[in-house]
Amino acid sequence: MATQLVHPPIPASQVAQPLPPITKMIRAISASHYPKSKSSRFGERSSGYRPIGVAEHSSGLLGSKELEKAPTQIKTDLFQALQGINRGIFGVPFAKKSEIEGLVKLLESNNPTPQPTLFLDKVAGGWRLVYSTITILGSRRTKLGLRDFITLGDFFQTIDVAEGKTVNVIMFNVRGLNLFNGQLKIEASFQIASQSRVDIKYNSSTITPNQLMNVFQKNYDLLLSIFNPEGWLEITYVDDTLRIGRDDKGNIFILERCEENQTDNLT
Fold first, then answer.
1. Which domains does the chain have, with CATH numbers?
2. pLDDT (0 to 100) of residue 7
3. Prediction pTM value
4. What secondary structure does DSSP assign to 82-130, as a single string?
């Protein structure tokens, strides 16, 4: 909890004590706000991170280095919150979902690229999905075989800015007489709608190899309805390694930067 700066009135019977030097006060406040850091995948993070209030920002108690660390600390906390939930695709407890969405909002308020469609080089290239509020639950999960013999793998996305196209690839592992891998590939085109929004149009989809198509043939429309990207997407945060978007259906997507050729060697 942050150090309290407002103290209760001192009884008149007590003798007022001299205030400590201002430098000691600053050190005490800084120490309570920023405990010893721990290492993580995004560098150092403060184990006691909390959002910086307007009053603190204006008071001058926090230096520029501390302010610059804030988004990195939020990203570290976000990736820790995402551990063990399989990208949220099979549901997330309410408390965990609220925690994730709170951290997403903090990042969005610190977006270093507030007009992303004016800087599409930040968006171009390869991405891997790490969280989505799209879920496959109940009868949909059963019909698609995702409870028993089909495992959902990684979600990759490649964005070609020059062509105005995106390719989404969803990986699957199928257990049966023989174990084999496959993918659903969805190709779409996009047009800039505003400084932060793009309109997306579905173009085509394919499933490979044929064995996987045979597995999904009966429920292919259901599969496509879940992953079809058509609509609009608001890019609410993007930096060199992380991107967050919100679509017209109220979904949140969190993706991290990856190599573009992740699916080139499929068999």
1. 31-81 (no CATH), 87-258 (2.40.128.280)
2. 43
3. 0.72
4. TTTSGGGTT---HHHHHHHHHHHHHHHTT-S-SSGGG-GGGT-EEEEEE
